[in-house]
Design brief:
The structure is a single chain. The chain is α/β, with parallel strands linked by helices and about 300 residues long. It folds into two domains: about 1-130 and about 265-290, Response regulator (Rossmann fold, 3-Layer(aba) Sandwich), CATH 3.40.50.2300; about 135-265, Response regulator (Rossmann fold). Helix content is about 40%, strand content about 20%. The chain contains twelve helices and twelve strands. It has helices at about 1-5, 15-20, 35-40, 40-55, 70-85, 95-105, 135-145, 165-180, 195-210, 225-230, 250-255, 270-285; strands at about 25-30, 60-65, 90, 115, 125-130, 155-160, 185-190, 215-220, 240-245, 260-265, 290-295, 300. The strands form two sheets. A six-stranded parallel sheet has the order 2-1-3-4-5-11, with helices on both faces. Helix 4 runs parallel beside helix 12 (about 270-285) and helix 7 packs parallel to helix 8 (about 165-180). The relative contact order is 0.16. The mean pLDDT is about 90.
Length: about 300
């Protein structure tokens, strides 16, 4: 019998076995609150919800645990609540590296772990789903160089805090691409992601008064609209090139108005969707999952943005 099984390459249907047992699989999702970062996190949330609806018949349930993106302790307190449900797997966006380095060792040994959006060097999840952040920063620098109007001046990188590894890599990619631009220099300005519009405007305006040769701005996350709203508020100023990330409603509106020139999409909804399916394939079906699932880098303009709106 064993010889016949081997010759036929027979494998037990794990899913059918679980279905017969009536088992329900609970996959915990640990992520920032959807309204934070200008509702950016609503994008992967939608992807996870879509995957969950498709997997209902497979008895898969996503249990959401939202933490405060701007509070390091929130990851730990929310994570402790998560552990009480004893999930079959964990899908998470580790955007506060310090907190996640403290939390991850408390996970049960062998618990399947999937990262999306960002990652933490040294940790080895089942898979990481996201974009090549360094390459996207490099692409942004090339877009800037090809479209900038002036022959010389300052290009500003707006780094949004709190930073994580993919924000840092975007910035490093842009700096690598812009280091040999004749006539141009590059500087970095830090902005708090939870700052009010007034606080953001005040810092940007103070910076501009000291650097009147500003020719372009690269924003490292979805907060691009805050910079665009500041610059748009003074129509007498000369045109600059503004590049940022993510087709959220406020960014789309300003892109159509011409206040933002380019948005880079990291396919955030797909990241959430693929994340839940990765856990399903590994835990329920017993299939192998690629260690990295990379999403493409899309360049969005006013001409094609409508195709990115759901």
């Amino acid at each position: 019998m064993r010889r016949i099984i081997k010759e036929l390459n027979y494998h037990t249907n794990i899913f059918a076995k679980h279905l017969k047992m009536g088992r329900v699989f609970t996959f915990a999702v640990l992520m920032p609150r959807p309204p934070q970062d200008s509702y950016y996190w609503l994008l992967p949330y939608r992807g996870i919800e879509k995957a969950q609806q498709e997997l209902v018949s497979h008895r898969v349930r996503a249990s959401f645990f939202f933490f405060d993106r701007f509070n390091e302790k929130s990851v730990l307190t929310t994570g402790q609540k998560l552990l009480k449900v004893r999930p079959d797997g964990l899908l998470t966006a580790p955007v506060l590296p310090g907190s996640f380095l403290q939390f991850c060792p408390s996970l049960p040994p062998g618990l399947p772990l999937v990262f999306f959006d960002s990652y933490i060097p040294g940790l080895k999840p089942l898979t990481f789903i996201g974009q090549d952040a360094f390459q996207s920063g490099l692409l942004a620098s090339r877009l800037m160089r090809q479209t900038i109007h002036r022959k010389k001046g300052l290009v500003l990188i707006v780094k949004i805090l709190p930073e994580d590894y993919h924000i840092i890599e975007r910035m490093e990619g842009f700096l690598r691409g812009s280091r040999d631009w004749p006539g141009f220099r590059t500087e970095v300005l830090e902005l708090g992601g939870s700052w009010t519009a007034a606080e953001t405007r005040a810092l940007l305006e103070a910076f501009y008064q000291k650097h009147r040769d500003l020719a372009g701005i690269f924003v490292t996350n979805a907060m691009t609209h805050k910079v665009a709203e500041w610059w748009k508020g003074n129509s007498a100023r000369e045109k600059i090139i503004l590049i940022g990330y993510d087709p959220i409603p406020k960014n789309i509106k300003l892109l159509k108005q011409g206040a933002i020139d380019f948005l880079l999409s990291q396919q955030s909804e797909r990241q959430g969707y693929e994340g839940l399916y990765a856990l399903f394939r590994q835990v329920v079906l017993g299939e192998e999952v690629k260690p990295r699932i990379m999403t493409q880098i899309d360049i969005i303009t006013a001409d094609n943005v409508d195709y990115y709106q759901s």
